[in-house]
Amino acid sequence: MNWKNALKDYRSYLKIERGLSENTITNYSLDVEKLMKWLEEHEISVSPVSISEEVVQQFIYSLAKKVNSRSQARIISGLRGFFSYLVFEDYRKTNPLELIESPKTGRKLPDTLSTEEIDSLIAAIDLSKPEGERNRAILETLYGCGLRVSELIDLRLSDLFFAEGFIKVTGKGSKSRFVPIAEATQKYINLYREQIRIHQDIQKGHEDTLFLNRRGRKLTRAMIFTIIRQLSEASGLKKKISPHTFRHSFATHLLENGADLRAIQQMLGHESITTTEIYVHLDRSHLRKVMEEFHPRR
């Protein structure tokens, strides 16, 4: 088995068996491709079935000179998954990364925005332009529902259950969840639908897509990043932010206002509560409040 075929089979496994998104599959594939490129550059002719732990170790050492410990740990994790798949399919007997430890990385706390900063970003939107109402609805939805950017651009009209106060969100691994949506967010989405979207020439296959570009097609991830970057510059915000910043802010503000961590986990679509627990580190005063309110010796 050569590298190209092994990677093709692995991608199929991740898509069909694991149900992972295209973005996640691409990221895993890039980790394997980095190793393939390194082998080619160093004229090392080995297959994914025969490559030894020593050769993989040399590749890991070369990474340490080029990327930070966090990126290094992510690549090691990606390769470990690839070779675990080969072991699972009986192409290999052992995983060459089994005994290779990932570098220690500090836990990076997510950046957040204050409510004032979010209001400032939204105020920077030019509502005189056709895309203004759409962009306001996008930011309000990102922050108001704590969505990932991929979840936002995949939202459909048929996912909106405003009468019940929920939207249906399709997250990682094609898993669906229902997220509460505030009346204020509903209002901005309806303004966009009734004043802008209804007048657009919508391309075939995108009739059910909620947020559309000027050509009547689904927005791209890159476009959402561009919208936020431009608004950040227009509002004079000094922080480096992304669509995910709104999701972090959503979770942090809920926690600060006393929301239950399990409820936040469900709304964010985190599979493990440990992923959600990172927000506790952002506001340790929340822990003190919990102790003072619920401990029997308070």
Briefly characterize the structure.
The protein is mostly helical. It has 13 helices and 3 strands, in the order αααααααβββαααααα.
Number of separate strands: 3
| Number of separate domains | 2
> So what's the CATH class of the largest domain?
Mainly Alpha
> What is the average of the pLDDT values?
87
Enumerate the strands of the largest sheet in spatial order, edge to edge or round the barrel. Answer: 1-2-3
**What is the CATH topology classification name of the largest domain?**
hpI Integrase, Chain A
Main sheet, how many strands, which sense, barrel? Answer: 3 strands, antiparallel
Radius of gyration: 23 Å
Shape: globular
Task: Estimate the strand proportion.
Answer: under 5%
CATH superfamily of the largest domain: Intergrase catalytic core
From the N-terminal CA to the C-terminal CA, the straight-line distance is 64 Å
- Helix content percent band: 40-55%
Subcellular location: Cytoplasm
GO molecular function: DNA binding; tyrosine-based site-specific recombinase activity
Subunit structure: Forms a cyclic heterotetrameric complex composed of two molecules of XerC and two molecules of XerD.
Main location: cytoplasm
Report on this model:
- With 298 residues, the chain is mostly helical.
- It has 13 helices and 3 strands; from the N terminus they run αααααααβββαααααα.
- The protein folds into 2 domains: 3-88, DNA polymerase, domain 1 (Orthogonal Bundle), CATH 1.10.150; 115-291, hpI Integrase, Chain A.
- It is 54% helix and 4% strand.
- Strands 1-2-3 form a 3-stranded antiparallel β-sheet.
- A hairpin with a 4-residue loop joins strand 1 and strand 2 (166-170).
- The radius of gyration is 23 Å and the shape is globular.
- The protein starts with a helix and ends with a helix.
- One of its GO terms (cellular component) is cytoplasm.
- It is found in: Cytoplasm.
- Forms a cyclic heterotetrameric complex composed of two molecules of XerC and two molecules of XerD.
- Residues 108-292 form the Tyr recombinase domain.
